[in-house]
Amino acid sequence: MPSFKVSLLDYGAGNVRSVRNAIITNGYEIEDITSPEQIDQAKVIIFPGVGSYGSAMKVLHEKGFYEPLKKYLANYDRPFLGICLGMQTLFESSDEYSPDADHAIAGLGVIPGKVRKFDETKVAVPHIGWNGRIHHQESPVLKYVAPEEDVYFVHSYFAPVNKENEDFALTSTTYGSQRFMSSVHKGCLVGCQFHPEKSGVTGLHVLKGFLEVRFVLIIISTFSLLFKQMSSILTYIFTLYVIQAVENGTLNNTKPLTIDPKATTQLTKRVVIALDVRSNDHGDLVVTKGDQYDVRENEKEGVVEGRGGVRNLGKPVALASRYYTEGADEISFLNITSFRQGVIEDMPMLQVLEEASKSIFVPLTVGGGIRSYTDPQTDQTWSALQVAARYFRAGADKVSIGSDSVTAAENYVNSNGTLTGETSIETISHVYGAQAVVISIDPKRVYVASKDEGDKKHVIVELDKSQAGPNGETMCWYQCTVKGGREARDICAVTLAKAVEKLGAGEIMLNCIDMDGQCQGFDIALMNAVSNAVTIPVIASSGAGKPIHFSDVFRKTSVQAALAAGMFHRKEVEIEAVKEHMRQEGIPTRTSTKTL
Ligand code: 1PR
Q1: Of all atoms in ligand 1, which is nearest to the CA of residue 403?
Q2: What is the pTM of this model?
């Protein structure tokens, strides 16, 4: 057991539970930094910045951490790992939340350069998913990580690699035509734009490399302190020892590598698994799965009369852990009956997240009931932001909003595009960032015989002949629903997608009630209509039954991820079989390691 604790700079703005769990999984104890004095005393600091650049810098100033941190980092000789925003704050400034283009928020300024925003006209923003790395230095931090293993990113802002800062680059990554710093390393200063705590075993190995290095450095620092009291000969001998220790694998043992300036990396297409969760008739929380959103057993399944019980496909945490081990790129828990009750007191679902995040190190989304509500028992009102905060604290990385996003989009459209700043999307996105807000759309087809037949306000989509309606209609519009498909609303999926993007959503989970549970493939026409209308990433959902359905949706549309449930729950297809098929079809697919 190491003799030191990892000092964690957590200012309470988001989900750092996973960072904590990843450090603990590597065998280290954590001490929270709550006062400025602790910064100077720390042996090693990990700073998992969450939220926006501006708010992070503000908190550092308010808590009196800014100056001590600058001092700690000044000579690059004290071990520090900044994660995502925690790495960005090391630069001089950022464009994030600077309404005036000339005004940039000042950062810690230990790395030259300014943090910029990806260009939405060229690439989907945020950059979400698993991407590769071009290694600029050989470093002990990456000693357990194979070059081809992908890591998980989620960010809209990036630090460009330029002449002034290129010697800080540990790795760079490309997104569209943009090369950016995916990690930095100088002396004992390390930063990752990617999330080690969300990069599966690969990410745990990054932390292992960094913290092991730390262990050797602490021994060195301890000796160095002792030497100050000793004779110069002894100092010389110990200095030799220190150099040797350094050469045997400490942070200083980095070597520049020659990189091919034309080398690129690729954002892979994600395979997401959804777990629809609800209580069964005995009150136990189970993973269930419907056919066109009906989750009750039917006659085919042995129920002779009427509707049977809720299908039970397993326990949420056990199933999610299996999917993590089998290579899922992301996991979504959807509380599908949350419209019946508020979720603040929904202890079982919160416990699911708390448990899941202890051993699952890929992104976790939670949906169902993200809205403001008043508890009828106590009359207390909770805002959507408070509900989301509760889930983030329990271990969620993103929240997905269904029904409430329909109301927000309707109001936005009816008010000719007015942003009130008060919707669940806006409030959560403002505090936690757009990347933390996923919109779950539950549309169903309304067939029309011709483009003229439809109401002009809905986008009419042409269907493939194999998808024609009951009277041979080859066109339809996609009507949004709320409460898990129980109530239809007068807004189409394309209009809703455009509205929620403007309101600040970072991603869309696009279901299709007609295809759900049918194993006939994704609704390609719907996926194209929505993904072509927005610049934020779209996750295709509903209808997968075989590996070829994944290659189809990735080839024929620009969606960035594909989600399936039933085929994996019923063990009809393995995740690895889907991924192998995608690789054979030339679709960029995450490469990972499975053993710790
Ligand atoms: O409206 O914000 O409270 O959120 C409710 C959430 O619960 C929404 O995300 C909504 O999609 C989901 N939901 C509500 N009722 C159901 C149901 O099935 N009765 N599940 C439901 C929706 C859709 C997918 C499904 C895919 C893939 N599930 O997640 O897993 O269709 O399935 P397949 O691969 O088996 O075809 P709010």
Answers
A1: 1
A2: 0.91
